[in-house]
Amino acid sequence: MTSPEPAPITAAPRALGLGRVVLSIGVPLIALASGYLGAHLALRPVVAALATRPPVLILDLAQAVRGLAPAQVDAVIARHRAIAHQLAQGGVLVLDAQAVLDAPPALVLPAPGQERVQ
User: The pTM is what?
Assistant: First the structure.
C-alpha cells in the first residue's frame, strides 16, 4: 500500500490583529496631537507679545490729499479710513502721521505713487 500524499501547506490569511489596528490609528493621532500641542506652546509667547505690543502703521493723510482737487479729498480720506479700519481689525495699531512726532520710515504707509522705505 502506498501512503497518501500529504496535502499541500497553504498559509491561512492573516487577520488584522487589534494591536495592528490600534497602532495604525493611534500613532498618527498621537503625532497629530503632539504637533498641535507643540505649535500651540511655541505660539503662546508670540500671541502674548502681539497683545501687549501690537504692530504699528502710520498713515499720512495730509500727504495723501496734498495736491488733489477738493472733490477728490473726501474719497481719498474715506479710502484711507477704510484701510485703517481693516488693519485695525487685523490687530494693527494705525496712527495718523500728524499725531506722531518721529518714527522710523519703515512704519509709514506711503501715499500712492511713493515707494515704501525698508
Answer: 0.52
Q: Which residues partner with 94 through β-bridges?
A: 57
Q: What pLDDT, on the 0 to 100 scale, is given for residue 109?
A: 75
The answer to whether residue 10 sits within a structural domain is no
Separation between Cα atoms, residue 84 and residue 76, nearest integer Å: 12
Same domain, 58 and 80: yes
112-115 contacts: CB < 8 A, separation 24 or more? Answer: 112/64, 114/63
Q: How high is the pLDDT of residue 12?
A: 57
DSSP state string for 62-99: HHHHTT--HHHHHHHHHHHHHHHHHHHHTT-EEEEGGG
Domain that holds residue 39: 19-53
Residue 61 is assigned to a structural domain of this protein = yes
- Is residue 61 a contact partner of residue 94, using CB atoms and an 8 Å limit? no
- Bridge partner list, 109: 59
Q: Examine the domain organization and report whether 43 and 86 are in the same domain.
A: no
Place of cell 512726532: 101
CA separation for the pair 92, 41 (Å, rounded): 23
